[in-house]
Design goal:
Elements: E1 15-21, H1 26-30, E2 37-39, E3 45-48, E4 51-54, E5 57-60, H2 66-82, E6 87-92, H3 99-103, H4 116-131, E7 135-147, E8 150-153, H5 157-173, E9 182-184, E10 190-192, E11 198-200, H6 203-215, E12 232-244, E13 256-267, H7 281-305, H8 307-311, H9 322-326, E14 336-343, H10 350-364
Parallel strand pairs: 1-5, 1-14, 6-13, 6-14
Antiparallel strand pairs: 2-3, 3-4, 7-8, 7-11, 7-12, 9-10, 12-13
Helix pairs in contact: 2-4, 7-10
The structure holds adenosine-5'-diphosphate (ADP) and magnesium ion.
The site of adenosine-5'-diphosphate has 15 residues, from helix 3.
Protein name: Kinesin-like protein
GO biological process, one term: spindle elongation
GO molecular function: ATP binding; microtubule binding; microtubule motor activity
């Protein structure tokens, strides 16, 4: 295919940050919570109490259809993917802030689901159908989670069978749940040793893999959300484009010219601090590990966003966590990254919401404008 897309490394921003404010949900309304977050009209700017933060985009579900996030933040990354560049979308925020809803990681196959992953699947297959340009497109899917600084395969069939029989406790402790090792290739690519990579030909096949892996995610109950996800879930779509040259094609030095790229869609673990979850023992340990990944991610993205430091060849701390190691070849460099910070508007969540907004703001290094009307 022809790539009209400007190479991402020539673009000013390889990392973009959006904020998605979900509406107040029933449990919050029943508790009498009020909405304490406002969007500055006409600006990608969020105000909470005396704090004002600016991003690339701000979405409030009262004013923005869910497809707008996809069109503005994610669709351009699919175009990059077809031009051979890796891409990553990350959903960040406290448990209950709407990460899974926004990403569509809990997709069960119903039509018109607004989540990002179902829309990505739809768009990729539509694009392949429309191109019909003599290129052979191979699409593969893997789905893993990082739980307590270990990587697990959510598409491992033997693990799924075990989970059905014994539920969460057996799953977390299951001897057959063998962690996967992260490997680096000679040219700096990241691979997972022995991970299930399923070939997919249709969006329905891809959706059923998403549903299968979603049901395998490690979840445990905390005070914040009985179904809270304590792991980072990474759904990866790999695209291999094989251009078959005709015998008369002077450019052809091999039979094939292969272009490979991958798209990581990441539903991060809850960002709340361990003390707020009322966690102790095992759950607290999970909290510490989770924070390590999120801390490292914040440091990596902020290092990538600092153009001056990057030009000086500043160190990017990819190796500080499994999450950042795994995403190493898909954050920075030629890749494009979008972080979607998800927040609840409820006053009861204000402290965590401010933490999320600060984290997302630091990730982007955007200069905040002065407080307006305050
Ligand atoms: P997280 O994955 O961050 O823990 P969830 O995605 O599970 O949060 O969302 C928590 C609750 O809020 C769910 O009941 C979900 O249906 C609801 N929710 C999240 N985002 C929205 C939204 N934009 N509109 C309506 N309900 C939402
Ligand atoms: Mg979730």
């Amino acid at each position: 295919m022809e790539c009209s897309e400007v190479a991402p490394h020539h673009q000013k921003d390889s990392v973009k940050v959006a904020v998605n404010i979900r509406p107040l949900i029933t449990p919050e309304l029943l508790l009498g919570c009020t909405d304490c977050v406002t969007i500055t009209p006409g600006e990608p700017q969020v105000q909470i109490g005396p704090h004002v933060f600016t991003y690339d985009h701000v979405y409030g579900s009262k004013s923005s259809p869910s497809s707008l996030i996809f069109e503005q933040c994610v669709h351009p990354l699919i175009d990059s993917l077809f031009c051979g560049y890796n891409a990553t979308v990350l959903a960040y925020g406290q448990t209950g802030s709407g990460k899974t809803y926004t990403m569509g990681t809990n997709y069960t196959g119903e039509a018109n689901c607004g989540g990002i992953i179902p829309q990505v699947m739809e768009t990729i297959f539509k694009k392949v159908d429309a191109l019909k340009d003599g290129t052979e497109y191979l699409i593969r899917v893997s789905f893993i989670e990082i739980f307590k600084e270990e990587v697990f395969d959510l598409l491992d069939a033997s693990h799924a069978a075990l989970r059905l029989d014994s539920g969460y406790v057996a799953k977390a402790a299951a001897p057959s749940r063998v962690p996967i090792q992260i490997r680096e290739t000679v040219n700096g690519g990241i691979t997972l040793a022995g991970v299930t990579e399923a070939d997919v030909k249709t969006k329905e096949e891809m959706a059923s893999l998403l549903a299968r892996g979603s049901s395998s995610r490690a979840t445990g109950s905390t005070n914040m959300n009985s179904q809270s996800s304590r792991s980072h879930a990474i759904f990866t779509i790999s695209l291999e484009q094989k251009k078959v040259f005709s015998a008369s094609d002077k450019l052809a030095c091999n039979d094939y010219n292969i272009l490979s790229s991958k798209f990581h869609l990441v539903d991060l673990a809850g960002s709340e601090r361990a003390k707020r979850t009322g966690a102790d023992g095992l759950r607290l340990k999970e909290g510490i590990h989770i924070n390590r990944g999120l801390l490292a991610l914040g440091n990596v993205i902020s290092a990538l966003g600092d153009e001056k430091k990057r030009k000086e060849g500043a160190f990017v701390p990819y190796r500080d966590s499994k999450l950042t190691r795994l995403l190493q070849d898909s954050l920075g460099g030629n890749s494009r990254t979008v972080m979607i910070a998800c927040i609840s508007p409820a006053d009861s969540n204000a402290e965590e919401t401010i933490n999320t907004l600060k984290y997302a703001n630091r990730a982007r290094n955007i200069q905040n404008k002065a407080v307006i009307n305050r």
